[in-house]
From TrEMBL:
The chain crosses the membrane at residues 40-60. It comes from Teichococcus wenyumeiae. This is Twin transmembrane helix small protein. Gene3D superfamilies: 6.10.140.1320. It comes from the Bacteria. Keywords: Membrane, Transmembrane, Transmembrane helix.
Length: 63
């Protein structure tokens, strides 16, 4: 279980990083605001998931 949560955390963190870079590149190239807004929502969701998985991992290591 510990390994699965660790892998999911890593995937969520990589996904957050990927969406962040995609949004930054889109802004630099002057893409439309709707796409940028959608990427921002995805980033927030992925960050929340990563944070929740991190807390779960900390609680698993605690006890």
């Amino acid at each position: 279980m510990h390994t699965m949560v660790t892998v999911l955390l890593a995937l969520a963190m990589l996904g957050t990083l990927g969406v962040l870079f995609a949004g930054m590149l889109g802004l630099a190239r002057g893409h439309d605001g709707a796409r940028s807004n959608k990427l921002m929502r995805w980033r927030v969701w992925l960050q929340g998931i990563a944070l929740a998985l991190f807390v779960i991992l900390l609680l698993m290591n605690r006890g």
